[in-house]
Amino acid sequence: MKNNNNEVAYPDTIYAWYVVAILFLAYTVSFIDRQIMTLLIEPIKRDLQINDTSISLLHGLAFVIFYTIMSIPLGRLADNKNRKVIISIGILIWSFMTAVCGLAKTFWTLFAARIGVGVGEASLSPSAYSMIADYFPQEKRSFAVSLYSMGIFFGSGIAYIVGGAVVQMASQSSEIILPLAGEIRPWQLAFFIAGIPGLIVVALMTTVKEPFRRDLLAVGTGDNHMSIKATISYLVQRWQTYTTLIIGFSLMATLSYGFFTWIPSMFIRTFNWTAPEIAFRFGLIVLLFGTSGIVYGGALADKFLARGKKDAFFRVAMIAAVGVTGFGVTAVLLPNPTWVLILLIPTVFFLGFAVGTGPAAMNYITPNQIRGQGIAIFYFILNIMGLGLGPLFVASFTDYVFKDPLYLRYSLAVFTIIVGVSAFVILWAGRKPYCSSVDEFFSQR
Hints:
Elements: H1 13-35, H2 41-48, H3 52-80, H4 83-101, H5 107-117, H6 119-135, H7 138-171, E1 176-178, E2 182-184, H8 186-194, H9 197-205, H10 228-237, H11 239-270, H12 275-306, H13 312-333, H14 337-365, H15 371-401, H16 408-444
Antiparallel strand pairs: 1-2
């Protein structure tokens, strides 16, 4: 049964893009808070006396634990409650917990604080992607989603640059003493500073309006809400589409997290660079070329859609898988650091392709009533695979296969080949069922 909820006019275009800008800032801050640890691996290992595997657990597993408990309920809240309020509360919590990371003295206290930081994307993305879909018509959503998704690489790039500057500044001081906290290490100061910008974003969120909900699937009830049972049934009936979509794009995210977590340490160990040296250079690459890749990937998907290619999002991600595998493996195996950085430019550019197109592909075939839950499931699996297993995959090869920290570059090479090829194969297999789901969804609107 069709629903006429799309007859209401869309909000003013300028205001809609303003909202995307605010959500982009929120996403940027969430990734600054999440990725700041990447640059601090070596001093944290030294002070807490832990190995690469333990670091990967702090960076990945601790963060995704929150998802196993709250991501789906938060997604359901996004489908039924005020999404602006959900996002604002989430920002306050993850900003506070980022600062708490700066108080950690042991592995387990830092692990517990990182669990709290995980509230960031669990509360933000389901509501944000759902809101963007209600602010823009179908033909403009891919680009809008891509601009929002730029926060991933923009925030990561800033985390490297600012984190490197903080480490350099703090390392020149004989002691760092903060009120209440007392004497702290330079890496702890970085966490305190990273927790501040979230408060500014919360203030800006007060200017955002909750949009009218669109693309509702008529379900025969007055409020058009879908029960949990109906939601599960809808997704299970289309299991081939959603499984290949989520797993394929999650593998692309796994590549990103593997690179972003370990590239700085690879330069420090292999080429004897300092943390500030690699932080500034790699940060600029991520900031400029990662965000460019996201925007271009979204624009390319829109171009494919305009040509009638229903599998547009999958095509873009498959191109990315080939590019990342080819350039990434070559980059980490080169003996000259300058050439490594040069080849990391196309690697990071292609890593950006799939960032916005994944959630855009979810939104494109998912009714509004379950869009938040769909995105929550998407990021639940993406973060378990990407953030939880990506850094751990590389660390495990370094610690238990090569058994030498200096072999980190070879761990990255093996990781890239296995994950990149797997992503391409699964995305290829998902094209046909996705096209069928597109036809079905648009026939019901």
